[in-house]
Amino acid sequence: MEGKTKEKCEKSGIIEMWAKKHLLYTEATRHPFILSIRDGSVDLSSFKRWLGQDYVFVREFVPFVASVLIKASKKSDDGNDMEVILGGLASLNDEIAWFKSEASKWDVPLSNTVVHKANQNYRRFLENLMLPEVDYAVAITAFWAIEAVYQESFAHCLEDGSKTPSELQDTCQRWGNEGFGEYCRSLQKIANRCLEKASSDVLTKAEVTFLRVLEHEVEFWNMSHGCA
Ligand SMILES: Cc1ncc(CNC=O)c(N)n1
């Protein structure tokens, strides 16, 4: 295990560098809303608000992931990209079903949800990333970041010593489980490979896009938390 960790550190890519360099990454993955789940002090009305809004987000996220799949099918020189992204789409199918059952468990109505400003802004951002002229390297970096924020956040709520309420364990497992972690590492590998080959112009665009994702994620957590 130790050898494995070391190997990972030695092979640190562009993505890991950016995640370390930008404090915003920690702000997005250790947000007060997540910390409140982890220490058990979470306000359940915040959780319910997050649940309803995230369902709306995920339905918008599907066409974005589909657009990344299209880019992969055209651009990719590695046969595995498509399988990884397709796996992501398949798990979104399960996720939508999960949201529906979770929402009924919590009495959160999913139809007629008033879409919050932060959600609308995030949607507009994703729509722009779906345009054909957006480079695959930029789109896959955004895709990785969106998934990684949830993975790192919810995995934190499952670590030893966390006091996550039992009724929220299932939510944390959805994104914090080891399989989702493995999937994020696959996305990270793809992103690193694309970025290594990218022009400096594309690299800059990808880094800026990475930061925009983090800002949107922080705004999204803020909204759940009732700070926005
Ligand atoms: C706002 C936001 N960001 C990332 C995710 C995780 N990806 C798919 O579920 C999510 N559900 N919601």
What's the structural blueprint in terms of helices and strands?
Layout: H1 2-10, H2 14-21, H3 23-29, H4 32-38, H5 44-75, H6 81-105, H7 117-129, H8 136-156, H9 169-176, H10 178-197, H11 200-225
Helix pairs in contact: 3-11, 5-6, 5-7, 5-8, 5-11, 6-10, 7-11, 8-9, 8-10, 8-11
Bound molecules: N-[(4-amino-2-methylpyrimidin-5-yl)methyl]formamide.
N-[(4-amino-2-methylpyrimidin-5-yl)methyl]formamide is lined by residues 54, 57-58, 61, 95, 146-147, 149-150, 217, 220.
Pfam family, one: TENA_THI-4
Domain Thiaminase-2/PQQC: 18-224
Protein name: Thiaminase-2/PQQC domain-containing protein
Any descriptors?
Thiaminase-2/PQQC domain-containing protein, binds N-[(4-amino-2-methylpyrimidin-5-yl)methyl]formamide, 11 helices, TenA_E, disordered N terminus, mainly alpha, globular, 228 residues
Report on the structure:
This is Thiaminase-2/PQQC domain-containing protein. InterPro entries: Haem_Oase-like_multi-hlx, TenA_E, Thiaminase-2/PQQC, Thiamine_Salvage_TenA. Residues 18-224 form the Thiaminase-2/PQQC domain. The chain is mainly α. The chain is 77% helix and 0% strand. It is built from eleven helices and no strands. The chain has helices at residues 2-10, 14-21, 23-29, 32-38, 44-75, 81-105, 117-129, 136-156, 169-176, 178-197, 200-225. The longest helix has 32 residues, at 44-75. The protein starts with a helix and ends with a helix. Mean pLDDT is 93; it is low at 1-10. Bound molecules: N-[(4-amino-2-methylpyrimidin-5-yl)methyl]formamide.
